[in-house]
Design a protein that fits this description.
The chain is α+β, with helices and mostly antiparallel strands. The protein contains two helices and eight strands. The chain is elongated, with a radius of gyration of 36 Å.
C-alpha cells in the first residue's frame, strides 16, 4: 500500500508538472487566452516577417544636385551652372528636371564675342547595378550673343536662336557623385554651344 501511495503521489506530481509546462493559468483574468509554446513561436515568427517587410520597403524620395563648371582658355571664359531636381522612383529608376545657364566669352587681337544660353532640361536614368547609370536627357537652350570685329568699321553682329539637344550618357556612380560621358544625337556644330557632340558630365546628388 505504501508503494501504491508513492506511485499515486508520483503520478500526481508528474501530471501537474506536465500540465504546468503545457499552459500557464492566470487567475482572476477574464481576458486571458491560452497560448501554447507552439502558437507563441508561430506568432513571433509572423511578427518578425512583418517587421522585415516593412524595413526593406522602398520609399520614393526627392534629391537635388546638378552640374557646375568653370574654365579659362585662349583669353576665353566658360561658366556652366545647371541645378537639377531628381525623383527617385525606385532604387533603379530616377527622373529629373533642371535649368541650364552657360556664359561664354572670348577676345583676341581681331575680334571678341560674348553669349548667354539659358533653358530647361528633362532627364530619365536607369541603374542596372548601383555603380552604373544610363541616362537620356533633353535640353533646350535659348542663345543670345554679340560678336565684334575690331578692325575696319568695327562691325558688330547680334544673334539669337533656339537649339535642341538630346543626350545619351553613361556614368559611374560613387556615393553622391557621378561622372561619365554623354553624346548629343541632335548635334549641330553651327548652333550648339558645345564644341563637340561628346562631352564629359559630372553630377552631384544630395
Amino acid at each position: 500500500m505504501l508503494q501504491r501511495l508513492y506511485f499515486s503521489i508520483f503520478f500526481s506530481i508528474s501530471f501537474l508538472v506536465a500540465s504546468g509546462q503545457e499552459k500557464k493559468v492566470i487567475e482572476n483574468n477574464a481576458d486571458y487566452q491560452f497560448q501554447s509554446e507552439k502558437n507563441q513561436t508561430t506568432q513571433t515568427q509572423t511578427q518578425t516577417q512583418t517587421r522585415t517587410k516593412k524595413t526593406y520597403q522602398y520609399q520614393p524620395s526627392w534629391s537635388f544636385g546638378g552640374n557646375i563648371g568653370l574654365s579659362f582658355w585662349n583669353n576665353g571664359t566658360d561658366i556652366l551652372i545647371a541645378p537639377k531636381a531628381y525623383y527617385n522612383v525606385s532604387p533603379q529608376f530616377l527622373a529629373g528636371f533642371g535649368l541650364t545657364y552657360i556664359y561664354s566669352s572670348q577676345e583676341d587681337d581681331f575680334a571678341k564675342y560674348s553669349q548667354n544660353s539659358f533653358g530647361p532640361s528633362v532627364m530619365g536614368a536607369f541603374r542596372p547595378v548601383p555603380f552604373l547609370q544610363l541616362s537620356a536627357e533633353y535640353e533646350g537652350l535659348q542663345t543670345n550673343g554679340d560678336s565684334t570685329i575690331k578692325f575696319g568699321d568695327r562691325e558688330k553682329n547680334s544673334y539669337s536662336y533656339w537649339n535642341n539637344a538630346l543626350y545619351l550618357g553613361a556614368s559611374f556612380v560613387s556615393r553622391n557623385v557621378s561622372f561619365g560621358v554623354r553624346y548629343d544625337v541632335l548635334y549641330d556644330s553651327t548652333r550648339s554651344v558645345y564644341s563637340s557632340a561628346w562631352s564629359p558630365v559630372i553630377g552631384f546628388y544630395f
